[in-house]
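User: Fold this, then the next.

Assistant: Folding the first:
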Amino acid sequence: MLRPKMILIDLDGTLVDSVPDLAYCVDRMMERLGLETRGEPAVRNWVGNGVERLIRRALTGELDGEPSDADYARAYPIFIELYAENTSGRSALYPGVREGLDYLLGAGYPLGCVTNKPAQFTLPLLATLGIRDAFGIVVSGDTLPEKKPSPAPLLHAAQHFGVAPADALMIGDSVSDVKAARAAGFRIVCTSYGYNHGRDIREANPDAVIDSFAELRGLVASDPSGEWRVASGEWRVTSDEWLGPRAEHSLFLGPRSCGWGLTAISTLGPPSHSPRATRYSPGTSHDPRRLRRTGRPRP
């Protein structure tokens, strides 16, 4: 089970299927240039390394093709104009993304979005799809001098959150994400459905591969701290020993070096009482396995 202190997530091919909009813009660009259109299947194999690289691939019809400077200079402003008007109309979140994001946010993980897409397209796309507020930082392709597969964007986000790379996780879909994560010292989880130029992402040896963001529930721990926090008043010990007659209780159940135990924190009480904690250990009369579910704390 992964338990990072921060999670960064790629955009295109990981959260969002943006190919329908990108392919539309590529084909309209080619028509304006008097060239043959490319079609969505070809564009699907070309995305993932930023707009500039996509335009070069569209002009040459090759993954590593290089058009003339003159052809690129003509094509670039046409594509930018088209994509500014068609950023999200045909794009959609992948199935399971909302569920996965809700799980990570509910567990308390700081989230960031790191993409090679320019900010002028990234921010409107996130906002239109309703997930902009999920991220404490968005690092776009033009935020820094370098983009993925450079580790710089990942390290920039880690510094923003004050998290060491060894405690960070990247979720992406391509070999560029894997290279960036490895260079930065992050763990890396990849989606199987994204944009990796037609190659199986497992060949890049990420730490794990998921078929849906919904699978993060079984891969990433539900509490970054390593303890399971239960909402105040949801559980109580069957014994009569409580921290105070007017106390509201929050219970923490989690691993311990000697096994596992329960800590009850008194968060409310008479004015003369200060918050205090009591450790309940296995094998005692307050063994956590003797908990029973209740609707509210004992009055």
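Now the next one, as you asked:
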Amino acid sequence: MGAPPGPHRENWRAPPPPHRENWRSGALFVAHRSEYTRYSSLARRPYRENRVSRAPPRPHRENWPGELGHSRCSRDFIHRLKLWNAREFARAIGRGEAAARRHLDLVVGAFVVRTLPPWFENLKKRQVRSPKIYVRDSGLLHTLLDIPSLQTLSGHPKIGASFEGFAIEQILSTLSLREAYMWGTHGGAELDLLVFCNARRYGFEIQYTDAPRTTRSMRIAISDLGLERLFVVHPGEDCYLLDDAIEALPVRCIPALSRRPEFAAG
């Protein structure tokens, strides 16, 4: 599948800085993100000097993900997005699991990475206990992955994870939600995003496809979690019902969620 149509695709590839409404030039995108990574590293230096005193020795500290450089450690971190596995990341950087968790805590505290904690429902099922992680700025993610254009992005193996992170960040920003969760069972059922609004539960499943469809996993999530509605976010143009409780929602329509009655402030 190619890049999604519409102006939102540029905001996914390279989210514009607050003071710029349009940011479409590939050359400007690369220059801005490269400068951003350098500035972010410098701006957080006092933070790191205060917080990293118990971090690994300098050779490892120079390569940890918080530096936002094109290091092997950063790439290992990026390629382990989705469900967090401290053991795997610790093996990748040659350190212990405690150091891996410290690295995660630091980049989360610097607002570079967001973690979605797992939701535990009172079920007689084994449920996933690992949080889901992703880079909050999709443009920064693409810079770390050396993705300079939409054409390159459309053929990249991480395009699905990138689109999922972008969509989730837009949803949480639009609805101004402080609490959000992921959910999954060891039987294979899962939900990308679970939110609570006006004492009701809503689910979001992210699909990078032209033709979103319902799955058995969605129906299990609706039943087990008691969802009022499940939205399938996709990169297309049309919004339509897939089922009585399942709605296909284009990513371009996410800003309109805040105007819907079910998400209105109570």
